[in-house]
Each structure stands twice: as structure tokens, then as C-alpha cells.
Design brief:
Elements lengths: L1 H26 L16 H7 L2 H34 L3 H16 L2 H14 L6 H26 L2 H9 L4 H30 L2 H6 L7 H10 L4 H39 L1
Helix pairs in contact: 1-11, 2-11, 3-6, 3-8, 4-6, 6-8, 7-8, 8-11
Length: 267
Amino acid sequence: MKQKFTRLYLIVVFAILYAPIVFLIAYSFSQGDTMTNYHGFTWRHYQTLFIDSRMLAIVANTLLVALLSSLIATLIGTLGALGINRTTKRVTRESLLTLNNVLMVSPDVIIGASFLIFFTMLKIPLGFGSVLLSHIAFEIPIVVLMVLPRLREMSASMLDAAQDLGATTRQLLSQVIIPFISPGIFAGFFMALTYSLDDFAVTFFVTGNGFSTLSVEIYSRARQGINLEINALSGVMFLFSLLLVGGYYWMQQVSQKRKQRKRGAIS
């Protein structure tokens, strides 16, 4: 009885979560121009999407910002996690973690307004650079929170053994520490990428007139009336998100199989 209730509960929860997405994507194949009635199947809105040069440029801008910011934030966040983990004083370590988490708990509107004031004071033009810097800033804490637990799971005896065998600091980092924390690094990268693609509030404040991302463009077009080209774009982005999740899951499975093979070879 309990299992049936649990399954029913999960079905209801997932139905509530995914029904709006399915509804949105279904109407992207409608022959009509609005979501009032379904008028039959067509690929017209996807064809319109792929010949819309402005939208394609915005998609390229969004992906470029997401990839660059995620890579840079992953590098900085990983180094930050290593630095926090090596801090011996508890007060200093807790203070650094608190500062790291400020961007995680602060409202996006406040963060966006703060970045806008900051860039305006420094006379930094709003556009690609301001959006990239803002995304890097709010992605770094995410990467730190993903990498730090893996560092805490690392056994100190493993590092001592590597040093006793003559490993240098560079070899210790590249051949012991990085491989051990790589699942956390990949998780941080994918989370940062997702946050960048999804962000609206911060980007809305720091984007300029000549630069836009998908979230800001969709908001601007939705204010003028729902266009089913937006539905088609949502369908493509949902598919892209599924590919990201599938890729991350595949990498996790490959990593686990490699670990199992190594354990079997050792035993």
C-alpha cells in the first residue's frame, strides 16, 4: 500500500512538473499562430526559427557566454575549493565559505542591480563583457560547493603515500587530487552551464542594447504576444538540456566502470 502511494505521488509530482513543458512543445507543432487552439501538425515554426538570423545570433551569444563563463568559473572555483580546503584555521575557512555562499542566497534582482551599479561606476560598457563577468561571478560559488565535498572525502593518507613515493606538488595535483575530484569538477561545470543558460534576472540588468541572450529575448517577445516560434525554441532548448543531462549521466557511468575495473585489477 505504501509503495503504491509513493508511486502515485511521484507520478502526480512529475506530471505537474512536465505537463507545462509538454503543452508548450506540443503547440510548437501547431499550424496556428497562437496557443488558443491546436490546428494540426506542422514544422513551420521550426523552419521560421532556423531562418531567423537574429534568433540564431542570440542562440550563439547565449551558448558562447554559457561555455566561456562555465569554463572560467570551473577553473577559478576549483582553485578556490582547493584553497579553502587547505585552510587550517577554522574561523578563516568558515568565513571564506560564508563569503562564497553570499551570491547563492542573495536574490537575483539584488545581484543584478549590484552588478549594474558596479559596471556603471567603472564605466564598463554593457554587453558581452558585462554579461560574461556577471555569469562567472555567480557561477563560481556553485563550482566551489560541488568540488569541496569531494576534497573533504579525500583521505590524507593517500596524499602522504604519494609524497612518500617522491611525488612533487605538481604531480600530486595532476595525478592524485584532480582525478579524485574530477566528478565534482564535471558536476560544477554542468551546473554552472545550466545556471548560465537559465539566468534571466542578472542578465537583464547587465545586458546592453546591442547584445542579448535567449532568456532576455524570450521575455521581450513574450511581452508583445505569444509567438509559436518561442515554443519551437523552447522545444529545441529542452532537447539540448536533455542531451546535457544524458551526457553528464554517461560520463558518470563511464567513470564508475573505470573505477570498478581498477578495483578488479588490484584485487
